[in-house]
Amino acid sequence: MAEPAATVASAADAGAADEAESAAAATWRPVFAYGAFGLPLAFAALPIYVHVPRLYVEGFGLSLAAVGAVLLAVRILDALTDPLIGWASDRLANRKLAIALSLPVLGAGMFGLLSPPAGAGAAWMAAMIFFVTLGFSVATINYGAWGAEAAHTANGRTRLVASREGFALLGVVLAASLPTVLAPGDEVAGLARLTWIFLPLLCVGALVTLAATPRPQARRHSMQRVLPSLWAALVHRPFLLLLAVFCANGIAAAIPASTVLFFVADVLQASGLSGLFLVLYFVAGAASLPLWVRLSRCVGKVRAWFGSMLLAIASFIWAYFLGAGDTFAFALICVASGAALGADLALPPAMLADLLARDTSPSDARAGAWFGWWNFVTKANLALAAGLALPLLGMLGYVSGGTDPDGLQALSAVYALAPVALKLLAATLLWSLRYKLDFEGGLK
Question: What pLDDT shows up at residue 441?
């Protein structure tokens, strides 16, 4: 009779844990508190991926090839350090302390990057991006791992991720719209003033999350050496499959992020509306988050993510056919592709958290290593997109601000058709692996 009694006790404990989490989720206070730090992190990320290339090309006279090379080199170096940061984070007792220590590095780097001194060149740009991305890496890896460790159920993990990404999209909208509002017609001055808003947001967002979010589950420190610990993540087959899909999909999203301002200014000839287009895109993403979360409960995260890829392909391919003055059509594309973005933001990290919960003991410390590789792929995608797309545009004859028809057609092809092809690859790969991911990873 001991065995049935133990089973009943275990079931009762599990039921009590679920009831406790449901009661906490009903207030949404810890969920919103956890998500708050996502706002300043995304606020910091958008200028690097969208504004910095054009700022240093047009504001400081660097060539597209030089900016692309700097972004490629620094981002690859930064990406290579992420698995090491993840491994080191697993050896720390307190993820909150790691996040707090990252804040001064991130804040100082952003100030130097967006408010450079006169005559700043490629070396200054490279150094400031390195500081920004170092602080950003320490913060995001520990922030993501904390969210994966803090929830006890699949729905709880999805809520935390959705909250984080919802706040992140709000941060992106602010970062996209404020430069134009702060200094109409002067992007350099607008980005410089943006830093004075970012620094208070960073402090407030971090304070809310660090003070009001519960600690994650107790875990033992990782005792593995760095290489065995990182290798153990890569040989975990469901994680590797998910990472491959995430990689192809991420590159598809990163190419438009690096070239959108050039496309709006030179193909649509509507540079004054660039902030509005970005706001439409990210607001649509934020509005779609609850829909993707609900759909994932009905059909599973894998199938919901696949559906979002098809939506992105069907909407974004039309950007190739746009020309000067087609602003309304581009606004519709921004809304439709932005709606697909909500799934890209909420579902893959939630799937990663599900894998960790399924295949890792609560007392193990592996989340940092897994999120380190996740960040590595994220940044490698961005590095490849900027490091290859921008020099390719130069080789194809595109010049920023130019009117040559062949150059503008090359810009349209790189901006619209290359991402569609990569998104098709990601969707095909995800669909071919759906049963393996569902069965081995428990991601239905």
Answer: 44
